[in-house]
Write a structure and sequence with these properties.
By secondary structure, the chain is mainly α. The protein has one domain. The chain has 2 helices and no strands. It is globular and about 35 Å long.
Length: 71
């Protein structure tokens, strides 16, 4: 994922409407910004490795990627 692709990914993700019964883990609070930084860094590192496939978890469960930011 190129830097422009990563930036577009976050722009689109932040533009999604939220709901009252869900928590956006990459929010604007300190924890959300940290998780976003972690995932951005991970995607940048994966760009160097050039994997053929990247699997993303949709429902990480209790304490899943709430700490690291990486699903």
């Amino acid at each position: 994922m190129k830097r422009a692709d990563i930036d577009l990914f976050w722009e689109l993700l932040h533009a999604l409407p939220g709901t009252d019964d869900a928590t956006f883990l990459y929010g604007r609070d300190a924890d959300g910004r940290l998780r976003e930084r972690n995932l951005r860094r991970y995607l940048e590192l994966m760009d160097r490795v050039r994997p053929r496939m990247l699997l993303i978890g949709e429902a990480p469960g209790y304490r899943g990627h709430a700490v690291s930011g990486i699903p």
